[in-house]
Design goal:
Elements lengths: L2 E5 L5 H10 L3 E5 L3 H9 L3 E2 L3 H5 L4 E4 L4 H15 L5 E4 L5 H13 L3 E4 L2 E2 L1 H7 L2 E6 L5 H8 L3 E8 L3 H29 L4 H8 L7 H4 L23 H18 L4 H18 L8 H4 L8
Parallel strand pairs: 1-2, 1-4, 2-3, 4-5, 5-6, 8-9
Antiparallel strand pairs: 7-8
Helix pairs in contact: 1-6, 4-5, 8-11, 8-12, 11-12
The structure holds nicotinamide-adenine-dinucleotide.
Nicotinamide-adenine-dinucleotide binds next to helix 4 and helix 6.
Length: about 300
C-alpha cells in the first residue's frame, strides 16, 4: 500500500487527501486546524500530530498550503529533516516561482526528487478527483509524479523543470482574471444598451467573444446553471485568491521584465473589489462592480 503524507487539509487539500485515501493509499494527514484533521479522519485518512510525524515513512509527500512562506517553512523544518530520501516530494500549493525554485534546490541538495504541481479546477474538482495539474520537475521523474497525482487528476501536464508548474499556473490565472473582466465589461455595456443578458450570452458564446469565462463560468446569472453567479457568487474561486495569483503574476513580470499591462489592470480591479469587502465572493461577482450594482451582492 502506498504511504502518502498529506500536509494542508483546507478547502482544496481536504478533498485531495480524501481522494487519495479512497483510491487505496494509506494517508497520514496533518494540518494546524483540529477541525480539518477531524474531517480528514472521517474521509479515511489517519490524522497525525505533526508534519514531521506525517512524513517519517512516506513514499510520497504532498503539500497543499496557502502561500510561499508556509511551503518554505514546512519543507525546511519538517519535511527535509524527517522524510526518507526515497520519498517523492510534490508541492501542489499555488506559490511564487522563486519559492518553488528555492524549495526544489534545497530538496535536490538533500537528495530528494521534487515537483511543483499547482492545480486548476477549484474545490469541486478537488473533491471529485478531476483537477488539472501543471508540473515542474525533471523529465525522468515525471512518470512517477503523474502516477502519484492520478487519483486526484483529470489531466497532468509537465510544463518544464522546477518552478515551471508555478509559472504556468500564474500565467493561466492572469489570463483568466483578464478574460473574466472583459466578459463582465461586455455584459455591463450590453445591459446599458438595452440588450437582454441571456440573448447576449447566446450570441457572444457563438461568436468571436467566446471564451471559458463566458461559456463555462458566465458571470451573468442564468445562462450557465452551474456557475457561481446562480448561487449568489458563493463558493467557486474567491476574489482574494484571484488577487493573490494576480499579485504573483505582477511580481514575476516585474522580476522578469515582461510587459503585462492588462494583468496590472486586472490586479487593480480585483484589489478594489477586495477592499470593498467582497474578497470572499467568487471572482465573477466583479460584474456587479462594473454594473454599478454592488447592492445586488448584499
Ligand atoms: P485553505 O486556506 O483552505 O487551506 C490551507 C490549509 O493549510 C489550512 O487548513 C491551514 O490550516 C493549513 N496550514 C497552514 N499552515 C500549515 C502548516 N504549517 N502545517 C500544516 N497545515 C498548515 O486554502 P485552499 O483553498 O485549500 O488553498 C490551498 C492552496 O491551493 C493555495 O495555495 C491556493 O492558492 C491553491 N488553490 C486554491 C484553489 C481554490 O479554489 N480554493 C484553486 C486552485 C489552487
Amino acid at each position: 500500500m502506498t504511504r502518502i503524507a498529506f500536509i494542508g487539509l483546507g478547502n482544496m487539500g481536504g478533498g485531495m487527501a480524501a481522494t487519495q485515501a479512497k483510491a487505496g493509499a494509506a494517508v497520514a494527514a496533518f494540518d494546524l486546524s483540529a477541525a480539518a484533521l477531524e474531517k480528514a479522519q472521517g474521509a479515511g485518512c489517519s490524522p497525525v500530530t505533526s508534519a514531521a510525524e506525517a512524513v517519517k515513512d512516506a513514499d510520497i509527500v504532498i503539500t497543499m498550503l496557502p502561500a510561499g512562506q508556509h511551503v518554505r517553512a514546512v519543507y525546511a523544518n519538517d519535511i527535509l529533516p524527517n522524510a526518507p530520501k526515497t520519498a517523492l516530494l510534490i508541492d501542489c500549493s499555488t506559490i511564487d516561482v522563486d519559492s518553488a525554485r528555492a524549495v526544489s534546490e534545497q530538496a535536490v541538495a538533500a537528495g530528494f526528487r521534487f515537483a511543483d504541481a499547482p492545480v486548476s479546477g477549484g474545490t469541486m474538482a478537488a473533491d471529485a478527483g478531476t483537477l488539472a495539474f501543471m508540473v515542474g520537475c525533471e523529465e525522468a521523474d515525471f512518470a512517477q509524479v503523474e502516477a502519484a497525482l492520478a487519483p486526484m487528476a483529470r489531466i497532468v501536464i509537465r510544463a518544464g523543470t522546477a518552478g515551471s508548474g508555478q509559472a504556468a499556473k500564474i500565467c493561466n490565472n492572469m489570463l483568466l482574471g483578464v478574460s473574466m473582466l472583459g466578459v463582465c465589461e461586455a455584459f455591463a455595456l450590453a445591459e446599458r444598451l438595452g440588450l437582454d443578458g441571456e440573448r447576449f450570452f447566446e450570441i457572444a458564446s457563438k461568436s468571436s467573444g467566446q471564451c471559458w469565462s463566458l461559456s463555462t463560468y458566465c458571470p451573468w446569472p442564468g445562462p450557465v446553471p452551474t456557475a457561481p453567479s446562480n448561487r449568489g457568487y458563493e463558493g467557486g474561486f474567491a476574489t482574494a485568491m484571484m488577487l493573490k495569483d494576480l499579485k504573483l503574476a505582477q511580481e514575476a513580470a516585474a522580476r522578469s521584465g515582461a510587459t503585462t499591462p492588462m494583468g496590472a489592470q486586472a490586479e487593480a480591479m480585483y484589489a478594489l473589489f477586495d477592499r470593498l469587502g467582497y474578497g470572499g465572493k467568487d471572482f465573477s461577482a466583479v460584474l456587479n462592480l462594473m454594473r454599478g450594482r454592488l447592492d445586488a451582492l448584499n
